Amino acid sequence: MPYDDTTVTTVKTKQAMEALFKRANCHAWRFTMLPAYHIVEFSYMAKDGLVSTYQVKLIPAFSHQDWDKALAGEYRERQKKALQTRRAAAWEQAQRQIWRVCYHWLKSKFEAIAFGLVEMREEFLPYLLMSDGQGHSATAGKIFLQRAQWDGHELADVFSGVRLLAPGAVTP
Q1: DSSP label at residue 40
Q2: Does the residue 145 lie in any domain?
Q3: What average pLDDT does the segment 59-85 reach?
């Protein structure tokens, strides 16, 4: 997997991400660390004054269940401690890996925006944080996918009359 041998700490990666946010004129950001996943949020004020907040969920490539099974076996105390040490090291490496992937992903997106290839709202639209209308927040992509009812190539009840283009179709 990409970055599975990275030695860059999560602290240094987050500092580098903060520098990216500053260069991209984001005016607020935060990192939330939860046991099974992490969240990166950042806010951006467009030239028209509209502030948009974006959210990305990071899920480390680490199986707590696999390690729990391994630790549940019959081991001598020394073997169990060695397994626990290996589990902690694997968890730490998974943390470094997912943060590095996110950093480079964000960096490439911000570079595309800086070069004028795309606009901020277009590039991060699936990650736009919104209200789902029921008092919960979710990303635009998640809300869209939850509400989309795929009926062939038509997205019923999401965009009236909007259809997915067939492969190779060109519109004027």
Answers
A1: E
A2: no
A3: 77
Q: Is residue 163 part of a domain?
A: no
pLDDT tens-digit series, residues 92-151: 999 999 999 999 999 999 999 999 999 999 999 999 999 877 888 899 998 888 777 665
**Under DSSP, is residue 54 helix (H, G, I), strand (E, B) or coil?**
strand
How many other C-beta atoms are found inside a 10 Å radius of the C-beta of residue 137? 12
> Do residues 80 and 71 lie in contact, with contact meaning Cβ atoms separated by under 8 Å?
yes
- Asked, for residue 59, whether it belongs to a domain, the answer is yes
CA–CA separation, 35 vs 89, rounded Å? Answer: 15
| pLDDT bucket at 86, cuts 50 / 70 / 90 | confident
* Mean pLDDT confidence for 50-77: 81
For residue 21, the enclosing domain spans: 10-127
Contact 37, 59 (CB under 8 A): yes
Classify residue 32: in a domain, yes or no.
yes
Task: Please state the pTM of the whole predicted model.
Answer: 0.82
Give bridge partners of residue 150 from the DSSP assignment.
155
Q: Which two tokens stand for residue 92?
A: 């730490």
Q: Which amino acid is at 135?
A: G
Number of domains, the chain: 1
Sheet holding 51-58, edge to edge: 26-33, 38-45, 51-58
